[in-house]
Specification:
By secondary structure, the chain is an alpha/beta fold. It has one domain: Rossmann fold, CATH 3.40.50. The chain is built from seven helices and nine strands. It has a seven-stranded mixed sheet with strand order 4-3-2-1-5-6-7. The chain has a two-stranded antiparallel ribbon with strand order 8-9. The relative contact order is 0.22.
Length: about 210
């Protein structure tokens, strides 16, 4: 079955990759591991560019290397959202001596990923670009578009939960055609080569530390 893949990059990272040795991930191979015997078509990888945090450029640099590696993969599209830094006032859960009960915090928020993923999946569905969709995310914000693609477009949608211990919400089970879970065995079988070449023949090396 011809299957397009729609990935919430940060949901996948925080669910399955953070703190592991599997960050050098090939999303196309992961989709093939999750759905063997299916034909993997377009892969839409939704993410946002990281900002330097307190002078630490390491995460942004490593992300850029990884994005370069992803661009070498066939039929993979990277769709960018944004990070916004916002100042908010929040009450303290427990009072701390010397601090007021309400404090001002700075918070980074990722924006547009769920909207971008939804837009690509529905637009491709209307074009009949796939016979089945695979959504890699555990975000309940995607419940309604998943259900609409399944029910209104009559196209099955498989959801892959990247969190090993967090349950898939009931809303996702009800909206999806089927739910699977991303496991370590899928991730270990889906790693990119340590060294690759970009379209100009320049080397891309897996970061030594991540």
């Amino acid at each position: 079955m011809r299957t397009n893949v729609y990935i919430d990059g940060f949901n996948l990272y925080y669910g399955a990759l953070k703190g592991t040795s599997y960050k050098w991930l090939d999303p196309r191979r992961l989709a093939a591991e999750l759905l063997p015997r299916h034909e993997i078509g377009k892969v839409c990888y939704c993410t946002a560019r990281l900002e330097d945090e307190r002078g630490n450029s390491g995460p942004r640099r490593r992300q850029n290397i990884y994005l370069r590696a992803l661009r070498t993969l066939p039929n993979l599209e990277i769709v960018f959202g944004t990070f916004r830094k916002r100042t908010k006032r929040r009450p303290l859960v427990e009072q701390i001596e010397g601090l007021p009960s309400i404090v001002t915090i700075a918070e980074w928020e990722e924006k547009k990923t769920d909207v971008n993923l939804t837009t690509e999946m529905i637009f491709d569905g209307f074009k009949r670009d796939y016979d089945q969709a695979l959504v890699i995310s555990n975000d309940t914000d995607l419940v309604r578009p998943i259900g609409r693609v399944r029910d209104e477009l009559d196209i099955p949608v498989v959801v892959a939960n990247p969190f090993p211990v967090i349950r898939t919400p009931r809303e996702i089970y009800r909206a999806a055609s089927r739910v699977v879970r991303v496991r370590d065995s899928h991730l270990s079988a889906s790693q990119l080569p340590d060294e690759m070449l970009d379209s100009q023949g320049r080397k891309i090396r897996k970061p030594a530390r991540w």
